[in-house]
Amino acid sequence: MISKFTAFSAFVGLMFFSAPAAAQDHGHEDAHHEEVHHDDAHHEDAHAVEMHTEDAHGAHTDHSEGHGHDEFVPASDTEGRKSVVKETVEHHLADSYDFHIVGPVGFPLPIILFDNGLKVFSSAKFHHGESVAEVDGEHYIIHHSKIYKTDAEGTITYDEHHHPTNEKPLDFSITKNVFMIIFMAVFMFFLFRGVAKTYQDSLVPSKSGRFLEPLIVFIRDEIAIPNIGEKHYKRYMSFLLTIFFFIWFLNLAGMTPLGVNVTGNIAVTVSLALMTFFITQFSGKKDYWMHIFWMPGVPVLLRPVLAVIELIGLVVKPFSLTIRLYANMLAGHVVIMSILGLIYIFASYVAAVPFMGLTLFLSVLELLVAALQAYIFTMLASLYFGAAVEEHDHH
Amino acid sequence: MEIPNIVGAGLIVIGAAMGIGRIGGSAMEAIGRQPEASGKIQTAMIIAAALIEGIGFAALFAA
């Protein structure tokens, strides 16, 4: 088991390492891409020489989108390399409109906009965010992973805080994150249906059931029953199992070189926490509400004060669930990517060896965190459910 | 002189780290005293640590 994990993380580390290495090879043919930072105020000095090429046509067309790997920056230009690493990290953490696998390999995803009627088209029209897409006479452009309305030249106007003032259409696109969520849902459906099927022939699990049965039994015996109680736990098992495996699988998908960052996206964790919140409130029994609004066993004067505190606690619980999962996954990705980026900044083989080792170590640690965060989310959800259905006989 | 937000966040993170450290240390001691209860101690330890961790992250996001 351990040797397999190590081999897997070594593979992960190697694949990440290939990104900066590929950037160097690419650079020679793509030297004209050096002007990427032209509209970023911090780097205008460093890149003053290259700026004029882009500024000649179009006021503020942002071409930095998706160019993380493509430009060549000389080893002596440490500041330039730092900004490339920063951009690459941000690019890998952000959601995107096409699924980029490695090098030129990848596939476009459907874009669904609601802007004077439904508009459905392929993200291939944007050419990886580099060009303006024209659909039914309307022009759209991707700027920092968001779609804006624009004209044929792709002009983007900015306010004084450098935020685009262009109109944003309602965006229901199947982005990379949405695609991964759908993919994981389908994958889990077939995986667990397969597990259920193996029990039709005999009570002894076979195939995938052999691996998953201990985990399912662990969630039932160690998480659900102790926290919710023998009487009610069955109602919540489906949710707890789903949420555990969903978070765990997506965390593991985040450890692959695909750059999937679903559980590190706050919108996803908010919805997971809201589901937990609503299930808790709707299964709340008399005792649960009494403990919130009129706490038994404390002086009457203190009860309104406690009610306020309990109500705040009600809101804080899903909030902390959200932030915990989101921040843990995001922080893990940022740390791993940044340490790999140091190899690129130092640009020497002496630096590469220790940083590779450190990345390997952190990747193994992240595999632990991936399981731990799924466990903690499930655990806390079952604690909240347990508090909601608890019945107190002693008063 | 105005103190930047990040300093406060740093203080909170130090506090959270001390808290999690104490929880871990105490759990080790408890397991040492009563190895047969290690499962229950681990569960309680992880929950408490996760709750404190939430405060640390909340501070980081407020900064």
Condensed summary:
The complex is a heterodimer of chains A (395) and B (63). Chain A has 395 residues and is mainly alpha-helical.
Label this structure with key terms.
heterodimer; A: 395 residues; mainly alpha; 2 domains; three-stranded antiparallel sheet; 10 helices; 9% strand; disordered N terminus; B: 63 residues; F1FO ATP Synthase; 86% helix
Describe the structure.
The complex is a heterodimer of chains A (395) and B (63). Chain A has 395 residues and is mostly helical. Chain A folds into two domains: 106-173, no CATH class; 178-389, no CATH class. Chain A has helices at residues 2-27, 48-55, 78-93, 176-201, 208-228, 233-255, 266-282, 286-293, 303-346, 349-389, and strands at 98-102, 105-108, 110-114, 118-122, 133-135, 138-143, 146-150, 170-171. Chain A has a three-stranded antiparallel β-sheet with strand order 4-3-8, with no helix packed on it. In chain A, strands 5-6-7 form a three-stranded antiparallel β-sheet, with no helix packed on it. A two-stranded antiparallel ribbon of chain A has the order 1-2. In chain A, strand 3 and strand 4 (118-122) form a beta hairpin. The two termini of chain A are 50 Å apart. Mean pLDDT of chain A is 78; it is low at 1-69. With 63 residues, chain B is mainly α. Chain B has a single domain (5-62), classed as F1F0 ATP synthase subunit C (F1FO ATP Synthase). Chain B contains two helices and no strands. In chain B, helix 1 runs antiparallel to helix 2. The mean pLDDT of chain B is 88. Chain A binds chain B through residues 222, 226, 319-320, 323-324, 327-328, 372, 375-376, 379-380, 383, and chain B through 39, 43, 46-47, 50-51, 53-54, 57-58, 60-61.
